[in-house]
Amino acid sequence: MKQRLLFLGPPGAGKGTQAQRLATREGLLHLSTGDLLRAEVQAGTALGQEAEAVMARGELVSDALVLAIVRSRLEHHTGGWLLDGFPRNLLQAEALDALLGELDQAIELVVLMELDSAVLIQRLLCRGRADDNEAVIRNRLVVYQEQTAPLIAHYKALGLLARLDASGSIEAIEERLSSLLID
Ligand code: B4P
User: Fold this and answer.
1) Do the Cβ atoms of 115 and 103 come closer than 8 Å?
2) DSSP 148
3) CB pairs under 8 A, 24+ apart, for 137-145?
4) Contact 176, 113 (CB under 8 A)
5) Is residue 38 within 6 Å of ligand 1 at its C-beta?
6) CB 89 less than 6 A from any atom of ligand 1
7) What pTM was estimated for this model as a whole?
8) Are 61 and 67 in contact (CB under 8 A)?
C-alpha cells in the first residue's frame, strides 16, 4: 500500500474523516494543518492567537506559519504519512516539494476528494464548528477555488493525482479509497 499520501479537496469533502480512519488503520502519521492550528488556538499560544481570526473568516493562515508546523512534524519522522488539508496553495505546494526533496521522501499519491458544493455546505452546517456558519463556508469555498484548486493541475502534471468520488456513506468512500492505494 502507498505510504506517503496527500488529501486534496474542498472544505467538507471529508478529508479529515477519511484521513483519521486510514491513518489509524495503517499506522500512518496523520498531519492535519487544520487540527494543528485549532490546537494552537485552544492552547492560546502566540501562533494560535494569530491564526484564530484568520480561520474565523475562512481565509488561509500565513504560509510561513503553516510551513513551520509541517516541517517540525515531518523532519524527524521516518514512517508513512498522510497530509490532510496541506498544501492549500501553490506556494505551500512548492515549499513542500522542496522539503520532501531535502528529506528524500517523495509523495506517492495525491487523492482529490470530489463532492457537489450543495452537499459540502450541508455537511459543514451539520458539523457546526466555530467556522461552520453559512457566510464563512461560502468564503472558504471561494478561497478553495481561487487558491487550492490550481493544485489539481500541479499534481496532475506530476502524474500523482487520483480522483475519488466523495459522495455516499463514510464506509463506501473508505472502500473506494482503499482500492486507490494498492501498489
Ligand atoms: P480544515 O481543518 O482542513 O477543514 P475542512 O477542509 O473544512 O474539512 P474536511 O474536508 O477535513 O471535512 P471533514 O472530514 O471534517 O480547515 C479549516 C481552516 O483551517 C481553513 O479554512 C484555514 O483557515 C485553516 N487551514 C488549514 N490548513 C491550512 C493551510 N495549509 N494553510 C492555511 N490555512 C489552513 O468533514 C466535514 C463534515 O462532514 C464532518 O461533520 C463529518 O462528520 C461529515 N462527513 C464526512 N464524511 C461524510 C459522509 N460520507 N457522509 C456524511 N457526512 C460526512
Assistant:
1) no
2) I
3) 137/11, 137/12, 137/58, 139/57, 139/58, 139/59, 140/11, 140/58, 141/10, 141/11, 141/117, 143/58, 143/59, 143/60, 144/10, 144/11
4) no
5) no
6) no
7) 0.95
8) no
CA-to-CA distance for 94 and 62, rounded, in angstroms? 15
Q: Whose CA is nearest to atom 36 of ligand 1?
A: 12
CA nearest 85: which of 43, 109, 121, 113?
Answer: 113
Q: What is the mean pLDDT of each run of 10 residues along the chain (183 residues)?
A: 97 97 98 96 93 96 94 94 97 97 96 97 95 96 98 98 98 98 92
- Which of these, 144, 175, 180, 165, lies nearest to 14 by C-alpha position? 165
Please state, in angstroms and rounded to a whole number, the distance separating the CA atoms of residues 73 and 76. 7
Nearest to 14 by CA among 175, 178, 169: 169
For residue 18, give the ligand 1 atom closest to its CA.
14
